[in-house]
Predict the structure.
Amino acid sequence: MAKLRHTASGHEVQTDTALAALYQQFPAFETPVWWFADEHIADMPVPAALPNWQCFTNRCDIADQLRAGHYQTDLGDFDIAADFDQVQTVCYRVSKEKALVHYLINQALSRLPIDGKLVLSGHKNDGLHSYAKKAASVVGTQAHIKKWDGGAYLATVVKLQEPTESLDDSQYPVIREIASAPQLFSKPGVFGWQKQDRGSALLIEHLPAFLSLFSTPPKRVADIGCGYGYISVRAAELLTDVEWLLTDNNASAILAARKNCEVHQLKHELVLADCAMGINGPVDMVLCNPPFHQGFAVAGSLTDRFLAAAHRLLASRGRAMFVVNQFIPLERKALGLFREATVLIEQDGFKLVALQK
């Protein structure tokens, strides 16, 4: 369950009760501690750093947040090197992606010593009980599960033996083909990794009409929040002589996007960045399908940040096209920055918005 709280600036943000329950346990954990930090941590205050802790995350915004709190943090695709220090406790607020949860549980149980502890938090609809029971069964024990405020649960698994098997993690690290026409690659850990997103497909369908607005063909194009690179790959079918700038805040997505750019021989630059932070323009065109699946409370600030990034990157009189859920007032917000904001089409719960700087 997520509860709304107000920041000093008056903005509403979500507080994850399962993460809050986990935070309460931090001082009692036996060190060394590994913390697997996922998307739930974004924009929530983190507890003060404790000695002998190591954090792992695949998102650069969360890595920045943890480092600002003075945590030792490894940013990557949760590829935990063999030379990381011994661990006594692993804690993890379970993610939305089942394959990732299984992968991280496998990592924890294989690296913990006998009598080491895996502490999981989540809600019933996150599958917390199932994850905890499966983890316990492969190390010869039972999970201790306790209910906390706000519908949160904490599960503790004490390792009594080496794992008898691994949980099915869908070969989490492997970048694999997900489509053949055109050929596309992705992996678990990337949003919508097994599908071609409907919003992105709608953007590609109407890209020719958007390109007709340009007096000269764009030469440099940015794909902000690129995911595994679907928009860039498909748009490159129409834009054959273009320099592509792809950026995402998720290290797993960047790995998959690199594979797709290489397979399709795109002239590209890939940057791991949060809302294109630190990236230099100018570009002639921005294409963007922002991650507004995160929810209503986050959508307002994300709208502002993605619009600001597009405006900053675009050359004078450059254009951007966004695809967003119909309920997001992107065109109204855009008029504070852009000369024009036009809704091109509304369909299947999405809308395409064309912007001119």
